[in-house]
Design goal:
The chain has 700 residues and is of the alpha+beta class. Helices cover 53% and strands 17% of the residues. Strands 1, 3, 4, 8, 10, 11 and 13 form a seven-stranded mixed sheet that branches. A five-stranded mixed sheet has the order 17-19-20-22-21. A hairpin with a 5-residue loop joins strand 21 and strand 22.
Length: 700
């Protein structure tokens, strides 16, 4: 098969990848917008959910008319309770005029109120609160449930802080009242820019996990591409465009870390709101600068050096203004920073159009990628100015631009191979001609050899760069990506030609992607657990109830696998002994332990769970024993470590991510307990969990 045919086939496959990416972006963008058909709207400070089914209709945004009191910068003693009015949520204050003639400034204090009517009493619900500018307190039924920053009546008495949050609650009456006290004296925009979501706890948290997973996939892709281009730069120091493109990727990643879900603020609590917003604005400016520098190096004739100098000086001045001025001042100058970035974007686009007219290689694909990236930038500007748009499309736009660049690199590789193939054919013709013709073309052959040598060196550099990239990928992502690469190479080289085999290979690839997603979720959960950033939903549970729960969850599955399952109390009198636990997280612990036990227990074997209580040290002991193959003594000290798997090849073939026992250990320790493992004398493995008993005084 010729190089041109291979190129055509791979281009079709890459087109499919683009289509899948577009679908993925649309799915991610819409997954959190939550726009069901005809969902109830709040009217006059009340929202009626009589006909709303959480199971069928899902999550609902609490949009519409909220009751609103505006106090501006008034002291508490001067508040007038009769100044109540209504305001549309979501929406910023933006000097709006209320029906009673009050003008709402962007800086001040306001109180939102909403009554949620006809809730299902006893059902556990969750509220997801977005970033609210810039400090707030949330009250549910007049009880403070969450706060961010310090709410005040002027700049000196308030402390800004922004971080999304979740509040779980159980409605106790048919009407639940929400009150949100918001103050803003530090940012140009005040109010609620994004909807507050209400739904069942699992629905809300699942939606958030999905969005976080998607964001981490995007972040991982951008980081890998960034390091990939750093590798290129280290191999060819004169080629500055690779360094500039890697900086663009890293700037966008860091900006994602201080916006939206604010990962950097969660990981580094010492990072203040002022520091985070300065980072956001500085990275916004530097991203535009790095993008212009990259395209200037790609198309120096069309995108002028004078422009790069001008934008570099402007970037220095803008960054200095962000560092020196207070957040309220420089955030009010957002139009200046936006005009700077838009000028850069449209200047690049005009240069690429000129390059396309001159038929320069890669100009068309670069123009498409920049147009998509520029659209994402304009969308984000509109969204954060409260006009319209979908939240945070810039990372997806950059990913689209990277994909266009990948096409260009691929085409250059293909052209190099095609030239090599052509030169090889010419070489064969020269060997068949007369000696005189060979002598006449000796110099041409030398030139051809030099071209082939340059191409060989370039390919060797590319391969070295690829190895450097792979060596920098963290342990938890390396294996799935390597397997996916193997499948893709087999498809590319037509090693797999039958349609059924191709379909089976694609299914295997999808499974690997699912495994990768599970790895990312497990890594995120383990990191959060290790950092002790988890809010446990503590409930009081008696050992008898816990025993029945285990039987209900696992007995049927054990029976299907032909494994004897016993769950019992060591003594009947400890039936009423109580523990204080997060039931769902402890379910995760036993799920990991039991499925490990099932994996290594033969058909006809037994798995036992025994609950015991030691009055002397007031500790509840839980023993999980199986009749399986046990644990090798050399492995026992390490089984709770990340990614530790047994060296036995049979075990490795069935191993999971290597994170399950590490997660179980963190959850148990988060409850103030301990977990240990040992081998039973008669064979099999025993896991022993110790948890503190809940005293009667604590229960009361």
């Amino acid at each position: 098969m010729s190089i041109r045919k291979k190129l055509s086939g791979l281009m079709k496959q890459l087109f499919c990848v683009i289509l899948m990416l577009i679908i993925l972006i649309n799915t991610s963008a819409c997954s959190f917008s939550m726009e069901p058909m005809n969902y109830p709207q709040a009217k006059s400070g009340n929202i009626d959910l009589t006909d709303w089914s959480w199971e069928q209709d899902g999550i609902i945004p609490l949009d519409g008319e909220w009751e609103f009191q505006w106090f501006g910068s008034a002291e508490p003693k001067t508040m007038d309770s009769n100044r109540s009015n209504y305001i549309q949520v979501p929406g910023t204050w933006d000097n709006k005029v209320l029906a009673n003639g009050q003008m709402i400034r962007n800086q001040g204090l306001g109180v939102y109120s909403l009554n949620i009517v006809n809730q299902q009493e006893g059902k556990r619900l969750s509220l997801r609160l977005p970033n609210i500018a810039t400090a707030y307190e949330l009250y549910i039924d007049d009880r403070l449930e969450m706060k961010r920053g310090v709410v005040g009546y002027d700049a000196s008495s308030s402390t800004p802080y922004q971080l999304p949050g979740f509040v779980d609650f159980e409605p106790r009456t048919a009407t639940t009242s929400l009150k949100l006290v918001v103050s803003n004296f530090d940012h140009r925009k005040g109010g609620l820019r994004t909807a507050i979501l209400l739904g069942e706890s699992e629905q809300i948290h699942r939606t958030d996990r999905n969005e976080i997973s998607m964001r981490f996939i995007i972040i991982g892709c951008l980081i890998m591409i960034g390091f990939y281009h750093v590798g290129f730069y280290l191999l060819r120091r004169r080629d500055m465009k690779n360094l500039l493109f890697s900086l663009l990727c890293f700037f966008v990643v860091l900006r994602m870390g201080v916006m939206g879900d604010s990962f950097l603020i969660q990981w580094f609590p010492s990072l203040s709101w002022s520091g985070a917003i300065r980072m956001e604005y500085i990275l916004f400016v530097l991203s535009g600068w790095a993008g212009y520098g990259y395209f200037h190096k790609m198309f120096p004739r069309e995108i002028k050096r004078q422009g790069f100098t001008l934008f570099s000086v402007s970037a220095i001045l803008l960054v200095l203004s962000i560092v020196v001025l207070p957040p309220l001042t420089f955030s009010s100058l957002i139009i200046v920073y936006q005009i700077y970035v838009l000028l850069i974007g449209f200047t690049i686009l005009i240069g690429l159009v000129l390059a396309r007219i001159r038929r320069l290689e890669g100009a068309t694909l670069e123009m498409i990628g920049v147009a998509g990236f520029l659209f994402a930038i304009v969308n984000d500007m509109m969204f954060y100015n409260g006009i319209w748009g979908i939240r945070d499309l810039v990372p997806y736009g950059l990913l689209f631009l990277i994909l266009m660049n990948s096409f260009i690199i691929f085409r250059r590789f293909a052209h190099t191979y095609e030239r090599a193939e052509l030169l090889t054919e010419q070489f064969k013709d020269w060997n068949n001609t007369l000696e005189k013709k060979i002598e006449e073309r000796t110099e041409e052959l030398h030139a051809s050899y030099r071209t082939l040598e340059d191409a060989k060196l370039e390919l060797e550099r590319m391969e070295l760069s690829r190895r450097l990239l792979v060596s920098n990928i963290s342990h938890d992502l390396r294996t799935p990506i390597t397997l996916l690469q193997g499948y893709l190479e087999a498809l590319r080289d037509d090693v797999i030609t039958e349609e059924q085999q191709r379909a089976a290979t694609i299914r295997l690839m999808l499974k690997k992607v699912e495994v990768l997603n599970v790895l990312i979720q497990d890594l995120f959960e383990l990191s959060v657990l290790e950092a002790r950033k988890v809010d446990l939903n503590i409930e009081v549970l008696m050992l008898g109830e816990w025993k029945e729960r285990m039987i209900e969850l696992y007995s049927m599955e054990m029976e299907e696998k032909h494994i004897q399952f016993r769950c019992e109390l060591e003594e009947d009198k400890i039936d009423n002994v109580r523990v204080s636990i997060d039931i769902h997280r402890m379910d995760r612990v036993f799920s990991n332990l039991l499925y490990n036990a099932i994996r290594f227990t033969q058909v006809g074997g037994t798995i036992e769970i025994t609950f015991a209580f030691d009055p002397s040290d007031r500790v509840v002991k839980i023993l999980l024993k199986d009749s399986g193959i046990g644990i090798h003594p050399e492995d026992l000290p390490f089984i709770f470590d990340r990614f530790y798997r047994k060296s036995d090849s049979k075990v490795k073939s069935s191993a999971g991510s290597g994170l399950g026992l590490a997660i179980a250990k963190e959850i148990v320790e988060l409850h103030g307990g301990t977990i240990q493992a040992r081998n039973a004398i008669e064979g099999g493995c025993i896991f022993e969990i110790h948890l503190p008993r809940l005293d009667d005084k604590e229960a009361g």
